[in-house]
Design brief:
six-stranded mixed β-sheet, about 40% helix
Length: about 375
């Protein structure tokens, strides 16, 4: 009712109806544009197959360029992350029309590694659970799946050594990376928690929640298992057991979230690698990962690092691991900024090969978009 006694309800209804009609029209246009994009993807597939029956359809560098453009050019009001996620799903569905993708991950269902695979590839891929990191590598190497996703490091607990060690023998390339903020939840069968005698989780998750467990469940036995999803599966079948796992694992195994976000560090982030049989081209914002062994002589480590400084190449990570060939000999895993095809990086690698016993480029790949 207005000040002069006029009823405005009719005007509001008319305005809402006009907006709803506008939304319906936009939805129709969005659907038409998505269909046109999908038709373009099918045409790309036809052209590629005519040129090469064994053509590769997934191009990580091209996808990264598109997603960066969306991320940087988003006008709002949706935030950039949400808009980028929507476009990733559109691209995933269009790629499935060209070539359905299968992606192996460290299982079982409901692990953070599966969530990382879906974040990177979208939900139109088929994810295949494997019981160990070695099996993920073998599945990709054999051609049973096109790609695999494996964890490589956590911001608080450091590297996943099994992943690094597997690269020593594998011919696979790193062709992408995924960074995920990790939130751990305590899961159990009863909403009140009951008497928790055992807590199952992956050893890294137990370490990432150590302070919370010390304060809240000091009496509970902490039992490491192969994955957080496996922890949830066990907790679902045992009285007095709980698990540290994700919300997705809670839904999958019918558990209650007894306590949310129990990780000790609020910025707890895990980095995952995408592995495949084909290398990635330059995207404009890339990383390169190397496996390097030093010659057994004084100053050898300095000789490995100086080519990067001399060519203005920034290192982002260096890790040492036993060589698995000779006792007390080590190899180095190095991450650096830039693609191996960039001139400054290529010069640094050429100089490095003169200094090192072995230089293996594990992959050049786009930096994580989100």
């Amino acid at each position: 009712m207005t000040a002069d006694g006029q009823n405005t309800a009719g005007g509001d209804d008319a305005a809402l109806e006009a907006i709803r009609e506008r939304i319906d029209d936009l939805d129709q246009r969005i659907m038409q544009l998505i269909s046109e994009r999908a038709a373009c993807a099918q045409e790309v597939a036809r052209i590629k197959r005519e040129a090469d029956p064994a053509a590769t359809f997934y191009r990580p560098e091209r996808e990264a360029q598109v997603l960066r453009r969306i991320h940087g050019g988003n006008p709002g009001p949706l935030d950039r992350e949400e808009m980028t996620r929507l476009f990733r799903e559109i691209m995933s569905a269009c790629l499935a029309l060209e070539q359905p993708l299968s992606v192996a991950f460290l299982g079982p269902e409901g692990t953070f590694t599966q969530a990382a695979a879906l974040k990177h590839f979208g939900h139109s891929v088929q994810t295949v659970a494997m019981s160990a990191i070695d099996e993920v590598f073998r599945e990709v190497e054999s051609g049973s799946v096109q790609y695999g996703v494996v964890p490589v490091e956590n911001s608080t607990e450091g590297v996943v050594t099994h992943t690094l060690d597997r690269f020593m023998q594998s011919p696979l390339h790193i062709c992408g990376e995924v960074e995920m903020r990790i939130h751990h939840h305590l899961l159990g069968q009863d909403a009140d928690g009951g008497q928790i005698l055992r807590v199952y989780s992956h050893q890294q998750s137990l370490a990432q929640c150590r302070e919370w467990l010390d304060a809240r469940l000091p009496q509970a036995e902490r039992l490491p298992v192969s994955s957080n999803a496996e922890a949830a599966r066990r907790a679902a079948g045992e009285a007095g057991a709980a698990a540290i796992a994700s919300e997705a694992a809670a839904e999958l195994y019918g558990l209650q979230v007894l306590a949310a976000n129990i990780e000790d560090s609020p910025d707890n982030t895990t980095r995952f690698l995408v592995i495949g049989r084909q290398p990635s081209g330059p995207s404009g914002q890339d990383k390169t990962s190397l496996l390097v062994s030093a010659r057994n002589r004084p100053g050898s480590l300095h000789g490995l690092l100086s080519p990067f400084a001399e060519n203005d190449v920034s290192m982002t990570r260096i890790e040492s691991r036993p060589s698995q060939c000779v006792n007390w000999e080590y190899v180095f895993f190095i991450d650096l900024e830039g693609h191996a095809q960039e001139p400054r990086v290529a010069r640094a690698l050429e100089a490095l090969r003169r200094e090192a016993e072995l230089v293996k480029v594990l992959g050049s790949y786009p930096k994580a978009v989100l």
